[in-house]
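Thread title: Can someone regenerate the structure for this chain?

I was given the following input by a collaborator and told the matching structure tokens would be attached. They weren't. Posting the sequence so someone can regenerate them.
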Amino acid sequence: MDLFKLLLVCALGGLLLFSCTPRGDWRTASRESAGIAPDPLHTREAVLHIYGADAWGWRGWFAIHTWIAAKRTDEDQYTLYDVVGWRGYYGGQVIGINQDIPDRYWYGARPRLLKAHQGAEVDLLIDAVDAAARAYPWKQTYKAFPGPNSNTFVAWVAREVPELGLDLPFSAIGSGFIDEVEDRAN
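Best answer:
Regenerated them for you:
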């Protein structure tokens, strides 16, 4: 009987947790610019930003989603590099490399700037980020925990391009997945 009560409490608690989201319906949540990134139509120089925002739903209570936004010198649009776990979102792959709003709200969650690089020398950094993103080894695989996920992707790029000087926060769950894979291999 005690086991039944425990299972019932766990099931109800899980249901409550999964149904709670502070931002309402993901389909109508804001995806607008937060006004953080320089306007590409008025900024000649290269810009490379790494953003993080609370993950969607209950996961946002303790985890963030991260992505990279880049604009080379004289470009008038940003290229976003990110991983999204919804199958088919990027034509069967979980990795996306697309032109989009760099500092968009992540389904209602305001992004925060985790790292910024700007200036003439940033074009070379963007080239290195692009090469690392295209070499990402888990293009077809997504697992919220322990990874690979969006934070694994950004951690991979940061590891391949140490000049980024990026340290992801503790809430970037999945960023340690690469180390776990290497530890298991040794």
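Strands lie at 47-54, 64-71, 79-83, 95-99, 112-118.
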